[in-house]
Each structure stands twice: as structure tokens, then as C-alpha cells.
Design goal:
heterodimer; A: 645 residues; alpha+beta; eight-stranded mixed β-sheet; six-stranded antiparallel beta barrel; 14 helices; 22% helix; elongated; B: 364 residues
Chain lengths: 645, 364
Amino acid sequence: MQATRSVICFVLSLFLIAAAPADDGLDAVRQQTIRQAVQRVAPCVVQIETAGGAERVGRVLKATGPTTGLVVGADGWIISSSFNLAHRPAGVLVHLPDGRRLAARIVGTDHSRMLTLLKIEATGLPVPDACSPGEMHTGQTVLALGRTYDLERPNVSVGIISALGRIWGRAIQTDAKISPVNYGGPLIDLQGRVLGVLAPLSPMASDVAAGVEWYDSGIGFAIPLDSVVGSLDRLRKGDMYPGLMGVMFSSGDLYSDPPTVAKLAWRSPAEAAGLKAGDRILSADGKPVERQAQFRHVIGTKYAGESITVAVKRGNDTITHKIDLIDKLPIYTRPIVGFLPRRDRPAAGVIVQTVLPGLPAEKAGLKAGDKLVAVDGQAIKARVDVEQACDRHQVGETVALKVVRAGQTVDLTMTAAAIPADTPNSIVEHPAPAGAKSPHPTGLIERTLPAGGGKFQAYVPDDYSPAIAHGLVIWFSTKGSPARNLVVDAWKETCKRRDLFLLVAESAKPDQWQPADFNKVDAAIKDLKTTYMVDDARIIVHGQGPSAPLAENFLQPRRKTIRGAILASGGNLQAPPSDPEQKVAYFVVWSKQDPQNRALAGGVDRLRKQRHPTAARVLAQPAKVYLAAENLEEIGRWTELLAAL
Amino acid sequence: MRARTNDVVRCLPLLLALFGFVAQPAFSQDAETIRRVSERMVKLFGAGGLGRIEAYGSGFLVSPNGHILTILNPLLDAPEITSVLADGRRLPAKLLAIDSVRELALLKVEGKDFMHFDLAETVSVEPGDLVLGFSNLFNIAAGSESVSVQRGVLAAHARLTARQGFNEFTYRGKVYVIDAPTNNPGAAGGALVDHRGRLLGIIGKEVKNALSETWVHYALPIDEFRELVRQVIAGKYKPTDPVAVDAKEKEQPRRVVKVDLRGIVPLPDVLDRTPAFIDAVQSGSPAEKAGLKADDLVLFVGESLVQSVDDFRVLIDKIPADQKVRLVVLRGQNLISVELPPRGAKSDVRTPESSAAEKKTKQP
């Protein structure tokens, strides 16, 4: 009996093995799950069509095909990736899965997460279910949906979650194929719940097209839906920007260096809150931070209008600050009232030499010959006092001057203004001093530096007198530069009229500039000052063509002492943020035929955007070898402005 | 106690069978699928090898008598095309027929009883379904090694507006867009199958989706070539003249100068894509009668989205003279549909040309 039962069991099992279906195993189950997940969320995935707009966004060619959006509000709120609308189209339409086409209005853009909110006139739209962050884990299967190929079915890409909290805490990373065919669409789980909205992102850059170059590469990003929904109320009111507080850390290794404040941006929230250079940030919003990168992780998710609580260590104290974040840090614009002081040495106070045309000082009635005795009620002794007083103002604020005119005290009020970009057409030359000339050599002189530092040449105008402080133009020469004598000859007239020295800076090896050569220039300036009267307010670097970047290299670490740069047909024109402690003005001259024409024009814009006073002169014809007499005459007038108050 | 153990022992085969029932399908079935499909794959070698033109490609058998389907490829320009079958046999292949619109080619090798795909099967797939791609991408399969297999899902089944370099993608039907990097050098002509190894389509060339400016992986669906293969095998195939097709495609001039815009005066075309805003509407024109106004943005001509003023002119010009023009414009936040009479319509239609003609005739 038992044997029979065993045999029957055995035979039965053989049948079962044979009859096992050859298909519909795990693959079929998975396929069915994917179909259902897609079907569940599909009614919330819409198509966006645009008409008109730019061909390029940044360096990316922007195609004209349909893009994708996701319903986030039943009464017509659609979220999409900002890249889909970055070409500023004239018309935006939303094509709903049910076939209706509706005009859409762009309501606001989140510039931190790169998402744009649209509004259409529709009600009762299906809103997707969300997957909460607690339920997401790395390695889980996800689907990226778009609706760009046709309207009937969303296009699908399958992948996994590669990482969470990417792009400084803002995004989910997936290896599904993410590209313009699904930007703006949802990243969903196998239950059809939305984890996030797909968008191109990059940790290195923050412009709208950043990250597009990684399309379909195995790295793609989605903004978690809960953060999208959380900021909808604000986005409905308009654009949102990443929050800034104006703290600069010392540049080094973001990932290992501690967050110690190196510098505070001018009039920034951090400065207003009382942070100081040297403070070491201990925690941000309660989270301890030991490295600069950790701090960035906390502030990376915050918006302008929000606040951040920062605990810092200063000496032995721990101080907590609550700082309100803003979208744009103010840019310092150096304010002046509009006059040139006399250059007599020794200076008998600050006496007005010339009142500059069209500026507040002229309007307020300041006159040549007036002697300043007080600014804003504070007594004035030297020009540096006037500068510091002006520095305390912003452009547009009222400045009160007290002057002495023909024995009488006169009170004048005027507004602080920015240094004009255009050089005035005529500036009266400073009068020559009465009295004895200089006992020191004039003309093209050669001096020897102490301690075997070598020799250098400089031009001192023939009518030089130590009673007048002279500005210093440092001409950088390298391989391909015009001959020294040609440059010196060209400058003679301007040096005489505008009270300037010309220092010829050359390298030991003619085609190579070494750090030692720069040190020699420092030594030459120092040496010149021992004998000649140099006006610290008018120390200027100058280069042409290949020597222009050299002049800039010399300038950059010396921005507190050098006040001007004359760059002809060359230069990188990098624009560091403007700073009250650095008063550098630029004169850039080139011709339309210059191969660097567009780069230089772009550089001038960059400088002006950072509020560095920049005068630009575009010549009709390129300079033959060196600048012409009329160019130097204009430059001469410009050098006067460097001393403007 | 002993009785229990005996029961377990007796039930063991049953338990084992049940276990096998559950555990069996996912693993051995995949290996079997792969083996079956690989048997039908062919590696092709021919002309090229200079610069970027690959001398290698893929194909698959579609008849027991040795018909091989592949993609129209420069490698087929060679006087001798060599096919390498899955079992390692090297056979010369003869070019039988080409379809220049779908860019397909049918070859034949001598022999019989070849393992082949049965094109009669219809398989339905949806986006998200598993797919496998079989091809000799990058010519990785040396000698008699089998072709490479890739796995992904179907991304979409839709029309593709694409470019191959500067050339327009001639095929206008639907393709299978694949969520896997299948379209690589040497892969064109490979087979796209479902998770059970049933043929879905033929892997295409390397092209860019013009609507998204991204490289796209796609296959031509089996529906598109079933009939072609059937006809060639039956000896009834009539090739379409490739020259004629090209000429027709190139007929449309890119820039149209004099187009009857029915009284619409669009914005001057000065930007990259000047949006097709209506600058003015001529009085008495069909556009005015239809209710169009200045500042309306023309969005659709028929079913086509208008990307620019240039687009607008080209689309209007394409409409046959006897057909009405259906436009959709955006006015503020409203979409408004209008219909303009056919170009050939007479009487009170005033175009710039007809007004001038009118003036001429009015003078005695």
C-alpha cells in the first residue's frame, strides 16, 4: 500500500515537472506590475507644447518637440522642468491625456530646483499619489515617464534609485534614462506613486541647462515631490531663488576644510547679523558642520526669504545668529560726489581743483578753490578722510559737506553718485607749481635697485616738481610689445599734462615673466617713491596685447594699492566681486577688427555688472604699433578720475 | 514519530516537484530563449572599414531557405557580402532587394532548413515591457562567437522625427523606441524580441530624435517589413525607385517668398525662431473676416504646431489651393480656431497681388 502511494506520488510529480509552464515566470509578473504602475499615474502626466523661442539655451541646442509636465493641483496646476521652458517660448500649451489642448501661463520658476509652475484653466484634474521620502531606498526599482513621443501612452524608462540627497541635498539620483524626452515627468515606484519630478541638474553648475549633457548616461535626477508640493504656495506667487547669506570661506578643499569665515560680502545678511571674519561655523539649523561641504548641504536647500540659524565660535564664545537669506547680494558701487582735489605736497587739506561736470557736487554748488573742512559733521584733514566718509554711503544717499570759500563757511548737501563710465571731454590740467624745480633727474631715467636687484627705467616729466604728487603708470612689456622708446615717447605729452610717471616693467628673459620679475616691479615702485613724489591714488598698470594679461596678473593680488588698469587689445577682464577696500577702475581700448573684439566687449560688460568703473573705447581702426596720440590724451583725462572724490 | 518521518519521505518527490514547479521558469526559460534567438542571428561583413564606415553589421534569418533581413548599410555595397551564422558557418550572401524608404535589405544564402524567425506571429507590446536586443554591436563577437544580448524595456511605440547627420530620416511610420543602448555601430539589422524571444522588430541605425535633440535607440516594428519579406520570398517584390523617392522629398523649397497668407501680416522674421505673431490684418481680407486680430499668435496650421514665422509660411504654402485653412491662434489665454477660405476662392478676396491687378484694370 505504502509502495503504491509512493509510486503514485512519484509519477504525479513527474507530470507536474513536465507540465510546468515554459513562460510567465518572474518576467511576466514584473511586466504586468510595470504596466499597472504606468496606467495608474498616466492620467497625471501631461504633454507641453511650445511655439517660438530661442534656438539655444546656454550651449545646448533646444529642440522644438513636445515636453512633459505633471499635475500637482486639481484646479490646473502643472509642474515641469525649467529646461523645457528655458527658450522663452511665445506660446505654451498643455495637451491633456484626454485630448484637450489648453493655453498655459507660466506662473513661477524655482531657480534652485529648476522647476517651473504652469497654470491652465481646468478643474478636476487627477493628482498623483506621492511616495514619502521614508519609503524610498537606494536600489529600489523606479520608472521614468514622459509624454513626448505621442499623446496616447507615456514613454517609459526603467532603472533604480542610485542615491538620495544629491546636488547638495536636493535630488534623487537614478540610472533610468533621463533626457528631454522625460524632463518634467514623474519618477514613480512600482505602485505608481510619484517619488519626484525629473529635471537636468549638475552639482558643478547652476544654470538652467546644467546637466543636460548627461542625458541618457546612467545619471539622472528627480526633485522629490514632497519638496515640490511644499513650495507650491510660494511658487504660485512668483519666482523662487536659492537663499544667499554672503559668507565666503577660504578656498581650499570644500570636502575637508572647516567652515571658517574668510570674508563677508558687502552689506550682506551675514554682515548685518554680526558675523565676523575668523568665525568658525559650528552648526547650521541645528545640524553640526565640520566641513564646508556639510554647510553647503544645509544651505543648498534653502530659499531667499527663509532664514538659517548659525552657531559660530569666536575665540572662546559660541554665538548663535538667525540670518535671513536673500536672492541677490548687493554689489558695492564706489560712491563719489564729483570733484578732483589739488595734488599739492605737502597737502594743505583737501582743496577742490576741478568740479567734474554733470555730477552732484556741481549741482550742489561746489566750486574750484573750496577747501573741505568736514564731511557729515566729521572734520577732514586729508583726502583719505573724504574717501572713508564717502565709503560709508551708498550711491544715492545724501552727503553733507562743509567748505570754506573766501573766508566764509558754506554748507552743501549733495547725493553720492557712481563714477561715470564716460570720461569727461575735457578736464582742466592741474596748474604747475610755482617755485624751484626738482633737483632729481628727469626724462628717461635709469635707477639701480639695492641689494643687486638690477636696474629699471622710468620716465619723469621734464617739468616735474616734488610739490605736485604724480601718478604712476606701470607699462608691462613682453615679447611682441612695442619698443620701449616708442612707448615712452608716446606718453611724454600726457605725463607732462596729467602729472604722471611711466615705469617700464620688463622681464629678465624677454619672452617669459617669472614671479621674480613681478617682485622686481614691487621693488622698483618702492625705490621710485624714495626719491619722487608718487600719488598713491593714481597707481595704474598698463598692458597691450600679450602684455595686458601680465598687467592684470600683477594687479590681482595688489588690488588694495593699485587703482587703475589700462588694457589695450587684450586682457582677461575677470571681474572679482567689488569691494570697498579695492578701488580699481578700468580703461579698455580695442578696435572692431581685433580678433578678441567680442571677448573684450563681453569682458567690459562683466566688469560693469560687478560695478567696477569701466571706460571703454572701441577704435575704428586698429592701432598700428601702439596707441595714437588722441587715445593717450583721452587716457590722460581718465587718469584724473582715479583721484576723484 | 516514525510514522511522521515515513510520511515526509513519501511526500518528498511531491514536494520536490512543487518546488521545481515554482523555481523552474524564470531561470532556465531565459537561457532557452537566448539560445533559440541566437540561433537565428547572422553577422554580416562587407564593404567599408575606411574611416567611420563600419564593414560589419547584423541580420537575422526569416526563412528556412536562407533569406536574411538587415538594414540598408554601406557594407552591402561590397561585391562580396559574407554572412557568419550562429554555428560558425561562413556563407556568401547575395543582395536580393532593398526598400529605401524603410532602409531595409533582404539577402540570401544558399542552403535549407535554416533556423529562422516566423514573421507570421503578431506580438503586442506596451511601454514598460521587457525587450531583448540581439546584435553584433561594435563587432565584439569575433569568429564564430554568438552575438551580444542587451536587455531593457520598450520606451514607446510612436512616430520618430529624426536625423542621421544632415539627412532626414525617411521612414515616417511608427517605431519601437528602446530603453537600452542598442543602436550602436554594427547593431543595425539586429533583432528586437520580447522576453519570450518572439520577434518584435529590427534594430535600426544611429539617429538623433530631432524633436528632443537626443540620440535615440529604436527598432522598426515587424508590421513594417512582414509584407516586404513575404513578397520577396514569393518572388513578387517590386522595388520602389530610390531616386524617385528622394526627388519627391527634396521638392519643397526651404524658404518661400510669395505666399498667400490670406491677409495676415506676420512679424518680420528677425530672430532665430520669430514667433508667428500677427503684426497686422489687412482690411477686407479673409483673415479679417475670420476674426483674426493683431497680436494673435498663430499656433497651429491644421495639425502642425507653428514654431516660427518661417514655419508658418511653409505650412500655409503646403496646403492645396482648393482646401480651407484651419488655424488655431492664441489670444491672451484663449485658444481660438478659425477657418480661412481656400486659396482659389474668388470674389472679395483681396491679396496684395489681386489688389494691384484690380488697380490696373480700373484705369480706363
